[in-house]
Every structure is written in C-alpha cells, then in structure tokens.
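General statements about sequence and structure are easier to judge against a single worked case. For one protein, we set the task of working out the structure tokens from the amino acid sequence alone. This step matters because it turns folding into a mapping between discrete strings. The amino acid sequence and the backbone structure tokens for this protein are reproduced below.
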Amino acid sequence: MLIPIANTPRDYAWGGVDAISSLLGKAPSGRPEAELWLGTHPGSPARIVATGQPLGEVTGELPFLMKVLAAAEPLSLQVHPDAEQAAAGFAREDAAGVPRDAPERVYRDPHAKTEIILAISERFEAQAGFRPAAAALAAIEALLGDDGLAGLDDVETNALAALRDQLADDAGVGRAFLWLLSGAPDARRLVARLLGAISVRAEAYPVQARLADLYPGDPGVVASLLLNHVVLRRGEALAVPPGTIHGYLSGIGIELLTGSDNVVRGGLTPKHVDLVELARLLDVAAREPLRVPGVSSAEGMVHLPPADGEPPFRLHRVDGAARIPLEGPLVALCVAGAFEIEGASGVVRLERGDAVCATADEAVLEIVGQGELYLAR
C-alpha cells in the first residue's frame, strides 16, 4: 500500500513559531512548532489523509518514527534507554501505578530509543557526549581565570579540588557531570561561582550564556561545559545511541528514531528531572560525537547508514530519481519540489509538505522528480 499521511506539529515551547509550516509550505499556526511526527507512536500518530484514521490502524506499529524537528531554543539535557532498560523501567512505573500521561512519568513505552538527526537548516547546533576530561577541566579553569581561582573561598577551593579529582581521566567525566547536577552543598557553591563567571564572560562562552538566560541558576548550565559542542552543516548528521547525554540547541533537522518517546532529563528544562534514573542510564565515558557520513549514489540519493551499528535504520535524501527495494515499511516526506512514487499498487504524487507511508508489499519503489525528498526506513 501507498498511504498518504499527515499530522499536526507539536507545540513544545522550544519550537520555532511557524517553523515547520514555513518549511513545508503549510498554513501558519501562529504557535511554536517543535516536532512533526510521521509514524504510529500513540503520542502523536500520523493520520491517513483519505480517512482521518490513525496510520497504525492499517499498518500496525511501525518500528521507527520519522520527525521534523525545529529547535528555536535549546532542548533539555537528556539520555534515552536501551531495550533492556526501557522494558524494565516501563514495567516498574506501571507496577507503581504511575499514569502513562503523568508529567513525572519517565518511561512512556517499553522500547529503546536511539536516534539520528540530519541537519536541513544551514546550521544545526547540539551538545552530545562528554568531551575529554582535560578539555573539560581546562574550560572550567579558563572560565574562572587566574583572578577567579585566586578568589575562591575554602569551600569553593575544596569543591574545585574534588572536581579536578573526578576529571583526572576520561572515565570520570560522567561522574563529574552528575556531581555538578547533584545539588550537594559544595557542588552548589562551585556552580554558583561558575554561573557568575559565565555572566561576566558571556562573549567567550556564548552557549552557556544563552542557557543561563533561559534557565537562571540551573546547574545544567555549568554541567554543559563538560559536553562536546557539535555544529552540523546542512546535510550532515549525528547519531545518538542510548545512554548518550545530549541536548539540541538550535536548527531544523530530519530526525529518525526507534518508535519511542522515552526521555530521562537531567536539567535545562521545566519538565520532570530524574537524576537517579539518569545516572543509571548514563554512558559516563568521554567519547567523540558519533557523526554519520552520507554516502552518495549514482541515482541521486544520499544514504545515511548506521554508524557502528547505531541506529538500526536508514535515512535517505533523494534529489532526482531513485529505485528503492523494500524489506519493510518506509515513510517519505517531500520538503521541496515534486516527486512521483510508483509501487506495485499504483502511483502517488508528492509535492512540498506531502508525506506517504509505503508498506513492504510494494516490493520496489520507483521514484522520479526533482527537489528534496527524505525517506525513512
């Protein structure tokens, strides 16, 4: 089946006003537009254009979720669970009687969450994974400066010494991150001192200064100094496996993820923060951001394959013609131009803003057109 689908953007506060409508040529909503979900997840299932019914009623549950993500303001510091963690956490919260729509609920489904984000704006900024311990410590000490280091009181001096011990090697960066977020008295004193330094040296620390304006007093502002700052140019992609601390800062991208909405937050958010669960899931080692290089084909496609086995799905960009053998379902979204997609059941025409779900019984998709078409499978 070739099933035209649609959905309404989710109006999370961090979304850009009319951002997704503008991208897709739709009527503006006048509201923040953060994410457009094209899948079957019950949090915001796509609907079938012809009937208005949820897509999953016809296709069953899709094993992935395609999103358009538009970040005008930074997202929270967060991690996602692997399959075992998600199943256990979901069962635990169900057994405890936590309603699945409760604000304090962490596990909204029993599925792992791993994702890839492909920049379609000219610039997409993120924080992802822990930077090397030496670099993290250098950033903190440079923020304080010689005068700041000399002006620390005894409590602050001892707190900085504790932080230096935690940052003695790359394996300790995650522990230092959790300590800064912990609210322990000595950590809180050092965080306050560092927040003051950020306000004075805003030009040298623009990411932290912006975070501090949005979330004054939040220790996540200081903890973000321990993270890799990632800048994606248009067409570049970043993979985020389970356990990777991250937060998107700004830009528009196509996000492809397993069909899950499980988010464990650690800061920089008015939503529920669960540091105990964050510590349980967190990959504490420093490592390079997992960039995913595109692979061009002779058919006018760019493939984004898994990097080191993560994530277990494919995202493609089609500019012209392509031929796609199907082994499972596929979702296509046209961002610019127009395309015709032909399968065993017939032909569907997609113009800017249109989307379609193809089921595996289409066998092979023949695509012709010109513009910008994204395929998720």
Remarks:
- The two ends are 15 Å apart (CA to CA).
- The longest strand covers residues 330-343.
- The CA atoms of residues 296 and 302 lie 4 Å apart.
- The chain has three domains: 9-128+230-292, 133-214, 300-376.
